[in-house]
Write a structure and sequence with these properties.
binds histidyl-adenosine monophosphate; elongated; 16 helices; eight-stranded mixed beta sheet
């Protein structure tokens, strides 16, 4: 029996890598004053049908539950956030700065960088229309990627503005009912053959392609870049109006993060969705909002292929999987004494392991090495003294059992 296509088993080293990513996500989000929240993994299918757009609805893992409810495993967090904020709107001072780390499910064609489950960090700001919030959000997104050791040579945030396109469509007198479909076509530009795009855009093909070849800009995008320049982060962004985002609810500034070499799919994406909370609450609540999500899959691939980032992760994950102390029980009569000491060491926070069954001393030392212990404590003929062996240097000293804790505190830095 194998895992389903697009689903991963996480062996201990994979879990260590995942924890490393989660820890950095959490640390940087907190640095920006974001607080953690979480929503349910199963939601009414209707939540996504309302406003996420056709692409994501086509990828839903959905079914009818035993109570005859139409439900879906969450493909993204934003509709849940909108629902929760609408329900608790008055309980919190605005702007809200919330982040969340969780697993998401999309029935996508499995390919490099895209699976059927993935983890995302979501960071959202609710209740602020000022461009300062967009600057704050993009800065956070940049700093999270930087925290993994990446520089402006490794990645770029491509920023754009949906209003740039909706202004253009208005100027072309295109009915607003067609805007979504046209924006989706522009979103797929790089991934679809030119002829197909031109056919879909019809008479708009020529002006759209002209804008794209010239490169569009706007006063709002200039101000956004100026704000990022003030933070010293302008080198991490490019204005690129080809970015419109696949999700239907965005209303303003949108952005996606890519590796500079353009080898991978998007690392993160987000933008402003000022109408979603109102639309999902049928008008009972109304809050401007903006946010982004970063996935673990592409980020993990990029870390693996970048020397400095990869080494930093390897170092951290190796430490996470190691123990500090291994207890060698050379004489079974000493097992009870050893157990007493093990309990005290663990109470003090040391990571300690020992043989559950009797075994040869040489084999026990080998296990100590395999588990990455820095110190082995030998309980045997030396009792009531214990042999303390530093595994890296092979140095040995004898310490009285009751002085062991003080000795380790002085000599073993964790
Ligand atoms: P999204 O662009 O659909 O945005 O996803 C965000 C990120 O999640 C992507 O850039 C990618 O790294 C990762 N991702 C998405 N689908 C997959 C997949 N099938 N396999 C692996 N990784 C994947 C959203 O989900 C929006 N809700 C983000 C947002 C938050 N907007 C506002 N607030």
């Amino acid at each position: 029996m194998q895992a389903l296509p697009g689903f991963r088993d996480f062996l201990p080293s994979d879990c260590a890598a995942r924890n490393y990513i989660f820890a950095k996500w959490r640390e940087v989000a907190r640095r920006y004053g974001f607080v953690e929240w979480e929503g349910p993994v199963l939601e009414p299918t209707e939540l996504y049908k309302k406003k996420s757009g056709d692409e994501i609805v086509g990828q839903l893992f959905n079914f009818t539950d035993k109570g005859q409810r139409e439900v879906a495993l969450r493909p993204e967090l934003t509709p849940s956030l909108a629902r929760v904020v609408a329900a608790h709107e008055r309980e919190f001072k605005k702007p809200l700065k919330w982040f969340s780390i969780g697993q998401f499910f999309r029935y996508e064609k499995q390919q490099r960088g895209r699976l059927r489950e993935h983890f995302q960090l979501n960071c959202d700001i609710v209740g602020e229309t000022a461009l300062a919030a967009d600057i704050e959000l993009v800065s956070l997104c940049i700093d999270i990627v930087r925290a993994f050791g990446f520089t402006e040579r490794d990645f770029v945030v491509r920023i754009s503005d949906r209003e740039f396109w909706t202004d253009f469509l208005r100027s072309q007198e295109i009915a607003s009912e067609r805007w979504d479909e046209i924006l989706q076509t522009i979103d797929k530009l790089g991934r679809e053959p030119r002829e197909k795009t031109s056919e879909k855009l019809g008479q708009l093909a020529e002006p759209v392609l002209r804008i794209l070849s010239k490169g569009g800009k706007s006063e709002k995008l200039d101000r956004l870049v100026d704000g990022l320049r003030a933070c010293g982060l302008a080198n991490f962004v490019d204005v690129d109006v080809r970015i419109v985002r696949g999700l239907a609810y965005y209303t303003g500034i949108v952005f996606e993060v890519f590796d500079r070499a353009g080898k991978f799919r998007a690392i993160a994406g987000g933008g402003r969705y000022d109408n979603l909370i109102e639309q999902l609450s049928d008008g009972s609540a109304s809050q401007p909002a903006l946010g982004f999500a970063m996935g673990d899959v592409v980020l993990g691939e990029l870390i693996g292929e970048t020397a400095t980032a990869g080494e930093a992760m390897e170092k951290a994950t190796a430490v996470e999987q190691k123990i500090n102390i291994y207890i060698v029980i050379a004489k079974e009569e000493r097992r009870a004494d050893a157990l007493g000491q093990i309990q005290q060491l663990r109470d003090r926070g040391y990571r300690v392991d020992y043989p559950l069954t009797p075994g040869k001393v040489a084999r026990q030392f080998q296990t100590a090495e395999d588990l990455g212990a820095s110190i082995a404590l030998l309980y045997g003929d030396e009792w009531p003294q214990v042999k303390v062996k530093t595994l890296a240097t092979r140095e040995e000293t004898l310490v009285a059992n009751e002085e062991l804790l003080a000795h380790l505190q002085a000599h073993l830095s964790l």
